[in-house]
Design goal:
The protein is an alpha+beta fold and 256 residues long. The protein folds into 2 domains: 52 residues; 200 residues, Neuraminidase (6 Propeller). Helix content is 16%, strand content 39%. It has 2 helices and 20 strands. The chain starts with a helix and ends with a helix.
Length: 256
Amino acid sequence: MSMKHFTRAAAALAFTLSTLAAQAAPLYGADNTLYSIDSSTGASVAIASGNSAYRLGLAWNGNTNTMYSVGLFDGTLSTVDLTNGATTVVGDSAFRLTGLAFDTTYSTLYSLDFNGGPLIRVDPTNGSAVAVGGGNNNMLDLSMNSAGVLFGGGFGGIGTFNTTTGAFTAIGGSLTWTAIAFDENDQLFGIDIGGDALYRIDTATGNATLVGGRIGGDIRGMSFAFSRNNNVPEPGVLALVSLGLLGVAASRRKKV
C-alpha cells in the first residue's frame, strides 16, 4: 500500500469509528403500544399495539441483549421482541409491579410495588420477587446508571434508592415522571405525566429540559437498548487511535 493510500485508509477508519461512537443507542417506550423513540427529537414510531404485557415498565439487560417488561397491575415478568413487540412470559410474582430497571453488575432486576410500596428485587430467570424494603416513595419508574445508582421517577420528581435497604432519597423536580431511562452516556431522560413529552433530566437537581414529542397516551415504561460491556470506544480513545495510525504513516514516510 502506498503512503498516500495508507494515510487515506487511516483517516477513513477514524471517521467511521467516530461516526459509530456518535450514534445514539435506540430508545423504546410503552403504554399498551411499544414505541421506538428518537431521543434527539422525541418523535416516536409504533412497533406493535394492544399488548398489556409491557404496560408498566421496560428494562434492558445489556449483558444478554434482552428487553424485559412488567404487565398491567400484576407481577408478570416478560421478555419483549423489539422487532415485532411479541412478549414471552418469564414468570410471576406476588407483587403488583410498576417500573423496571436492570442492574448489569449483579444481573438482577428492580421494580416497585404499586401504590407506593417497597423496592422489589426480581429474578430475571424466573420472575420471582422479594421485597428489599422502603415504601411510600411515590415513584412510578426506575433506571440505573453506569455507577450502579438506582434512580426513581414519579410524583415529586426524581430520587435515588438504596438497593440494600430500599430507602429512598428525594432529589426533587417540578414535573411528574411516568417513565425514566439512562442512555449510554448516563444522561437521564423522562416522560412527563401531563404532555407525554420527552425531557432530559439533571440528576443533581431534578430540573428538566424539553426534547419534544408527544409519545403514546400514557407511557409507563422506557429503556435504552445498549451493552455497557461492548460499547464502541469513546471519542477520546478514537482520537488516540487515529493519531497512532497517522504517526505510523509519518514514520513510514520518513523511511521511504
